[in-house]
From TrEMBL, chains A, B:
It comes from Pseudomonas taeanensis MS-3. One of its GO terms (molecular function) is iron ion binding. Its cofactor is Fe(2+); L-ascorbate. GO terms for biological process: carnitine biosynthetic process. Keywords: Dioxygenase, Iron, Metal-binding, Oxidoreductase. InterPro entries: AlphaKG_dependent_hydroxylases, GBBH-like, GBBH-like_N, GBBH-like_N_sf, TauD-like_sf, TauD/TfdA-like. It comes from the Bacteria. Belongs to the gamma-BBH/TMLD family. Pfam families: GBBH-like_N, TauD. Residues 127-380 form the TauD/TfdA-like domain. This is Gamma-butyrobetaine dioxygenase. Gene3D superfamilies: 3.30.2020.30, Clavaminate synthase-like (3.60.130.10). Residues 31-104 form the Gamma-butyrobetaine hydroxylase-like N-terminal domain.
Length: 395, 395
């Protein structure tokens, strides 16, 4: 058996991750359409023959340069069976198929992909958990040093994990130059462009095409709720802030959703189940998106908040459901105003917010543009990029 | 009846669309929490007082420059009632609220946002419909002239509507220079960047980081199924194609989903309901996304296909559901190979494919890199941008 990575004995693995061996294969019991594998810790993991053949990572089935599959399962009969199965001296699973093909599976990889009930529950329990926060976060902001994040991969990883799990971070010691955001985004991957540009300038403008570009109080919101995919991370970099007022306000939308779930479950479900139209108003663009305010992932866990009162269209729901929708919406907005959830902080020159735009709602108190200059530079990076970078750094 | 934007008499409208008046308000019947409006064609549309107050577009409630809402519904009592309601001489709905606020609603706007059952069904029926296609599309490709699309907004709109509704188009008369794609994307909005860059080069490479960059046969797939949001539009611009082989193949994923729904509904539902992990393999990135192969929108209509056998992770489903998942997956792949669905065409220099990457699966037949040069330039633009541009062009 030939090898792929470093060891002559290793079974090929069709990705770049590593799979430590936490248990050994001790016995194989072939059933009619699956192989029951028995592990040294007593777990039994059935693997269907289809599944095993599908995941063969040999040099014929997977192109070794890209590690991408060449084989397609539809090219073998649905009833394909092994002629022989065994555990070799290195503890790998070997299968000789009826059609003459041979497969070899690394026990660490196999265990990491087992789909018996226990293995699936174990993987689910290992998913990253959001750490919910409220007003107390004001005194314990996750702060990171810009130069460290730029120079050191460990510092970078710690910062990105805080962005992922807490959703609100501040960088300090940031130069007040306009090349900071592109350089910082490059530490993750690349900037997500929008109709406001690659970078945007948060300043009061006479010809504003968004209330963000006025000096008004802005209610708590997510950016670009009018898009199918709201931007994942938002960066706000303070170049100058000499104006009176204009403090940054944040709430943890996941914490509010959780509190609503506890305190008024029927209102929570209304916000999960009722699609709302968000619609921008602009001479040059006309984005709209129909989506619920609270989105759940495939596991039923809150994964996204979508909120922007000034970008919301008229509610469109069956007549009999409209009062409940207003009750739920009012309650959510009222909660974003409750002191228990709110973090209010002034951002000074040389500081930078980076937060999860799909979780952490942000706002700005009114400011007086005559009192001094106020200029923030902003950009977005998507969640995919954050998570991919974390995975690569953790390899 | 006056027009909307130009007249002093017009009720303000908080967006940039226009709302022709298709029926007149003829009677108002206040109920306990809603106003029943009667229209000249007999329709009755109830509007809750909350809803009416929420959608007041006066200069206090909406900032006239951005047309974005300043008012928040939570700032008035939930039980707010009108003191007086009437239809004025211009046919607008006037409301004097108990708290002294006044609202005025344009009848065209009101009708367009009515949420009685008939109005909602009417709007739903007006949604754009996908035109499904099969092998016959090979002889009736929607073809457009590059120069016309670049110079003329009507030609642009016709092309974009074909992209939206058919999902497969070809441009002809395209210069074979590398500045074409940025210029063309700018006619819509901007390019969506990915880890493969702003523009990507589809060429056979020795150090390929994707099977796309080899000369292999590529099975039918969508691009970047490993991302939360797959790119909406894909552009493939042929600069040179002197190689033997390497024909473009397309199938309408929506047509296959519809056929599967008809021919084997239980397999269709399995593909709608089972999240599959897509995972890229790369030294520099590690994207993964758990999502079903067939996605439905809020109306239950097929809105997206996600497919890439070479970017698929191992299936992870409960043991008892694994055989059904393989049956459904095999059937879908087998259908992508059926001649009734397949369009196979060679793209020559000066031609360009633009297709809906979330609907139209694409592939390439194997080619011989020694037989001649083959170089396609590619990029992505998201669906949001396509739809926004169409809306603005249609105003």
């Amino acid at each position: 058996m030939n090898a792929v990575d470093s060891s002559l004995d290793a079974a090929p693995i069709a990705d770049w991750r590593s799979y430590p061996i936490s248990a050994d294969l001790v016995n194989l019991v072939p059933a009619s359409d699956a192989l029951d594998t028995h592990w040294s810790d007593g777990r039994v993991s059935p693997f269907h023959y289809q599944w095993l053949r599908d995941n063969c990572a040999c040099g014929q089935c997977v192109y070794s340069v890209t590690r991408e599959q060449l084989f397609e399962i539809v090219d073998v009969p649905e009833q394909l069976h092994p002629q022989r199965t065994r555990i070799d001296e290195q503890g790998h699973l070997l299968i000789d198929w009826q059609d003459g093909h041979h497969s070899r599976f690394h026990p660490g990889w196999l265990r990491a992909h087992a789909y018996d009930e226990v293995s699936r529950a174990e993987r689910r329990a290992q998913r990253p958990q959001s750490q919910l926060w409220g007003a107390e976060m004001s005194e314990q902001l996750p702060q990171f040093d810009y130069q460290a994040v730029m120079a050191d991969d460990d510092a970078l990883l710690q910062w990105l994990l805080a962005v992922r799990d807490i959703g609100l971070t501040q960088l300090r010691g940031v130069p007040t130059t306009e090349d900071v955001l592109p350089a910082l985004a490059k530490r993750i991957s690349f900037i997500r462009e929008s109709n406001f540009g690659v970078l945007f300038d948060v300043q009061s403008k006479a010809d504003a095409d968004s209330n963000a570009y006025t000096s008004f109080n802005l209610p708590l919101h997510t950016d670009l709720p009018t898009r199918e995919l709201q931007p994942g991370l938002q960066f706000l970099h303070c170049l100058v802030n000499d104006a009176t007022g204009g403090e940054s306000v944040f709430v943890d939308g996941f914490a509010i959703a959780e509190a609503l779930h506890q305190e008024a479950p029927e209102l929570f479900h209304t916000l999960c189940e009722t699609p709302i139209e968000f619609r921008n108003r602009s001479r040059n663009s006309d984005y709209h998106r129909l989506a619920p305010i609270i989105a759940l992932d495939a596991y039923g866990v809150v994964s996204e908040i979508r909120m922007g009162n000034f970008l919301r269209g008229a509610f469109d729901a069956p007549v009999e459901r409209m009062p409940a929708l207003y009750s739920a919406y009012r309650r959510f907005i009222a909660m974003t105003r409750e002191p228990r959830f709110r973090v209010q902080r002034r951002l000074d020159a040389g500081q930078l917010w980076c937060f999860d735009n799909r979780r952490t709602l942000h706002a700005r108190t009114e400011f007086d543009p005559a009192s001094g200059a106020r200029h923030f530079k902003g950009c977005y990076v998507d969640r995919d990029e954050l998570l991919s970078r974390i995975h690569v750094l953790q390899r």
